[in-house]
Specification:
- Helix content is about 30%, strand content about 15%.
- By secondary structure, the chain is of the alpha/beta class.
- It has one domain: Rossmann fold (3-Layer(aba) Sandwich).
- Helix 6 links the parallel strand 4 and strand 5.
- It is globular.
- Bound molecules: S-adenosylmethionine.
- The site of S-adenosylmethionine has 23 residues, from helix 2, strand 2 and helix 5.
């Protein structure tokens, strides 16, 4: 698989990057947890618009996997990496617990969560996302039920699936929950997906 923006650091594998890009085609996306903008840039390839939120202060998981970067360095990297797409991105620099009550989940077609991965953090997002539209796609990164550190948030995702009755699928550790069939689901996250092989508008 061709490397997807390898110059942008992050924890999103190339097939997960492609899946986010493909899910976002023509959609209005909410992203919680941007870091240096790797997933933001994935969405920006095909999305109509992106609202992204991060306090850019890191968390215990980003530290655990090796990010010792200062807040200023992460913000600068995010700004640099997303600059080509700035006309279709709104950035909310805030703790999600403070800012999310001001947002309406019904305003978004794709709701992506990749901020803190404690059970408490994941549940905060999942409870908020209960009011998402039925035709919206919920995507949460790091579904790893077999790894001790990640298991509590995976349990929250399992509960979300049961609570909402949504169908779920995985691309890597990307947990995707929908009520409606995903176009070309079997090819999601691959270079064979039809959205990889068509010309979109001049901005992408
Ligand atoms: C795993 S990184 C996001 C990775 C990014 N999606 C990518 O593709 O590279 C998690 C991010 O969530 C942010 N974060 C953690 N807890 C947060 C909170 N309560 N509110 C806002 N942002 C938070 C951190 O600052 C960090 O940048």
């Amino acid at each position: 698989m061709k490397p997807q923006f390898p110059e942008i650091s992050g924890w999103l594998f190339d097939h997960e990057f492609l899946a986010l890009k493909q899910l976002a085609r023509g959609k209005v996306v909410l992203e919680i947890g941007a870091f240096q903008g790797r997933s933001t840039v994935a969405f920006a390839q095909h999305a109509e618009y992106i609202v992204t939120m991060d306090h850019f202060g890191g968390d215990e998981f980003t530290e655990m996997v090796g990010s010792q970067l200062s807040r200023e360095t992460v913000i600068e990297a995010f700004a640099r990496n997303t600059k080509p797409y700035m006309d279709k991105i709104t950035v909310i620099v805030s703790d999600m617990y403070k800012a999310m009550p001001f947002l309406n989940p019904k305003d978004f077609d794709v709701l992506f969560y990749d901020a803190g991965h404690t059970a408490e953090d994941a549940k905060y997002f999942c409870d908020w996302a209960l009011d998402a539209r039925d035709d919206a796609t919920i995507a949460i990164h790091d579904y790893k039920p077999n790894e001790e550190v990640w298991k509590p948030s995976a349990v929250v995702m399992d509960e979300y699936k049961i609570q909402t009755g949504r169908s779920t699928m995985l691309v890597g550790s990307l947990f995707i929950a929908t009520h409606e069939p995903i176009p070309y689901a079997d090819l999601l996250g691959t270079e064979d997906h039809p959205y990889e092989n068509i010309m979109l508008d001049a901005n992408v």
